[in-house]
Amino acid sequence: MKYYPVYLLLAGIVCTTITACTDKTNKATTIKSGTVWHDTGGTPINAHGGGIMHHDGVYYWYGEYKGDSTYWNPNVPHWECYRTEAGGISCYSSKDLCNWTFEGIVLEPEMTDTTSDLHYSHVLERPKVIYNDKTGQFVMWLHVDSDDYSKAAAGVAVCDKPDGKFTYLGSMRPNGQMSRDMTLFKDDDGKAYHIYSSEQNATLHISLLSDDYLHPTGHYTRNFINRHREAPAIFKHDQKYYMITSGCSGWNPNQAEYAIADSVLGIWTVKGNPCIGENSGQTFLAQSTFVLPVHGDKGSTYIAMFDRWNKTDLIDSRYVWLPIIFKGESMEIHWLPEWDVNAIK
Ligand code: GAL
């Protein structure tokens, strides 16, 4: 995005959408945040708290497949623990980021064994998948929890295809530490990191993974100490690392914050709220989940992905995807109700 002045970019994105909501094949080309998004079969997309992996020219979107009824967990009287049955992890594929085909549930929920992490009565959130070039495996990490969120652990699953059935390997508290909201980051040198809210969500840990991406190495840093940051989304741009996080207010939106570092493990410098426009003080009524690098003929650009949670009907939570704009080292995310994804590719 660094190649274009901000005003030109925004004008381009918005103007294109006035005339071109679909292309010649009648496929969608625009992203309309906050509306119901349907897959190519016409069913609403059910992939919350997710992330996207680009592999062999295809984008794979993995997310929480939420059950269709939401209830207040009676085991948790002291905070708004709205939840649904965990339906496993879904996968959708697309070549254009607008038209998504449902590939199925790639990590199945367990229907009978109540002791399994994957039992539908438990919590399965924020899945992320990265490809390991050395082992040829697709590796998924996700937040697994008990129905009252006291387990605070991370689960790992693997598959030899991006859209095949993942095999669950089990869960752990990484480095012996609590782990809830999480993401993964694979750096250019092939090293991968697990980034998770720890210490009762007070401090964010960044943990170097083993070469096969299946285990923590024991080498980790404590970041944003006692600042209660959640929903981490991390990316690299011009040799700097960027991270967007939310505050800690359950399903309710709060103000986003971004930070910059010279190394994934830190030190991270907090820069402030990147959001601009309607509801920017509450992250456009949403919460960060992932930043997708898009490599096109306009250079590297990035889409910030957020979830607009509907806490009393969680399956109807919506997606908010917006382009990131750089001004020097600073980043901005402007509210756009509809924009043409081809304008940034
Ligand atoms: C949020 C978190 C979500 C979910 C929710 C439960 O803070 O980001 O992923 O865990 O709490 O209330």
How would you explain this protein's 3D organization?
With 345 residues, the chain is mainly β. It is built from 1 helix and 23 strands. It has a 5-stranded mixed beta sheet with strand order 18-22-21-20-19, with no helix packed on it. Strands 2-3-4-5 form a 4-stranded antiparallel beta sheet, with no helix packed on it. Strands 6-7-8-9 form a 4-stranded antiparallel beta sheet, with no helix packed on it. A hairpin with a 7-residue loop joins strand 16 (257-261) and strand 17. It starts with 5 loop residues before the first helix and ends in a 5-residue tail after the last strand. The model is unreliable at 1-12 and 14-21 (pLDDT under 50). Residues 49, 125-126, 181, 230-231, 250-251, 287 line the site of beta-D-galactopyranose.
Specify the helix fraction band.
under 10%
Shape: globular
Give the averaged pLDDT, no decimals: 93
Low-confidence residue ranges: 1-12, 14-21
How many individual β-strands? 23
Count every helix, treating DSSP H or I runs of 4 or more residues as helices: 1
